[in-house]
Amino acid sequence: MVTIRSFWIYTKVTVLGLFFYSCSNDDIKKLDSYTVIIKNHYFETVDSIRIGSNFVSVLEINEVSQPFILEKQQYQFSCLTRSKLILTAKIDVRGSKENLIIEVLNNGKITLGN
Amino acid sequence: MTSRKKIYLKIVFSISFILIFTSCKNELETLKITKSRFVLVYMIADNDLDYFAIQNINDMELGFKANENGDLFVYIDRASNTLPSHPYLLKISHDTTNVVTSKIVQTYPEQNSSDANILKKVLSDALLASDKTYSSMGLVLWSHGSAWLPSGTSLYSNRGDIFDSVSQSNRQKSFGLDFQTQSKYAVNEEMDIKSLAEVLDNYKFEFILFDACFMASVEVAYELRNSNKYFIASPIEVLSSGFPYNIIVPQLFKDELDPKSIAQSYYNYYSNQKGILNSGAVCAINSSELNELARVVNELCSKSGTVQIDRLSNTLNIDSIQQYDRLKVGVLFDLKQFLGIESSAIGDEVLKTSIGGIWDKTIIAEYHTSNVLGTLSLKNCNGLSTFLPHKTSINVNNYYKTLSWYKASGYNKVFLDIY
Hints:
heterodimer; A: alpha+beta; Immunoglobulin-like; four-stranded mixed sheet; four-stranded antiparallel sheet; 8 strands; elongated; B: alpha/beta; Rossmann fold; 2 domains; two-stranded antiparallel sheet; 35% helix; globular
């Protein structure tokens, strides 16, 4: 016999079940490769840019590189500034967005975004 | 609910209760704050001191031990003919080679490092670059120096170069010399002491140390008194080798800072040099006593009456007072000697004793060699300079009147013939 108390219990269970069901559904695409560009926001030209086996010769200030493909993994990034400083970073290429941007910032730090 | 269920729930809650407080207690134990210090060395080396800046950084690497209790950062703005010439921020690590090996943690485009706002930003950047919280902080300001002086006035100094050109700039200048253009004497930017005091006002450094000429001036110390516990500087020229960082860096990180020991290390280094390089003077000031020093000086000035500064006066002949620049241009006089002469002149022995007592509490250490570079005698050196306003260019006196020391000390009651 369905009482008012048992009705609320069943409602709570149903709501909780729907909640976990919807959370367990994975709408995020799993990607294995990404399209990457490099933007130079540094205050000098940077060259000898290397990430994995990809090599970009020179980027002027505010210049953006041609896109290239990177597999999902960690890479060592490095570039040489006009003042002969080597900027390096470990880049973790992953995530749900297909297009990624590596930025060389004004303070010498390197970030990955989309 | 059955009694069995009630007992069961009680047991579950009790266990959870115990677990929560046990885990919290563990977390509290791991949050003990260790005493550690953050020190920034701010080097304005975009001038003729560039070579010596790198030498000093090498010494810092030598002196900074791997297990040092804190972090040492160096901001350096180098000369335009170096690579890189743009400023950068180093986090110092121990090294015994002659090459700077410390990691650059941040770079900056070419900028006027003599702008006090740049110093403020660099302080913030360095703190962000570290991954710790610190129990105290220290600041070393490294460059050329000219005490509190305004634009249009330079003091003869042999540090790095024989440089006594007069700036064409109308900007105030007190500390730091940043050559900004192709011609190194064309446009020079220097940091105004009042601007410096303003940006440092929110900080309370364990120490501020000036590795720059002439900065042990009461006007400078007083202007900066609220931002530091101890003030360490030289009243005379500092030779190009600067402070012996391989020796003093460990001292800068002692839990209980010993400013007397730091000053003594500087003196010992230079008193052991030969010939004209046997040249150094340094003082360490307890900044919390500067207000009291100003008060007793004010009392003295209130009783002094008008003071005429000239070479003919019997009461205050400037040739009889220790000066601190080698050309004796009449800008930097020994403060203690001046106070002694004035208090004797008014015959107030009680006040004289009081001044002596306050002086000893304020100047906790003072050391000097017998002369400056084999020329200027330091016979009457007591470590701290003062300006004695007199008939001179309007720019100097008018600017001097804007300094905190001028009014606090009562100089405005005494030196009435300045215009």
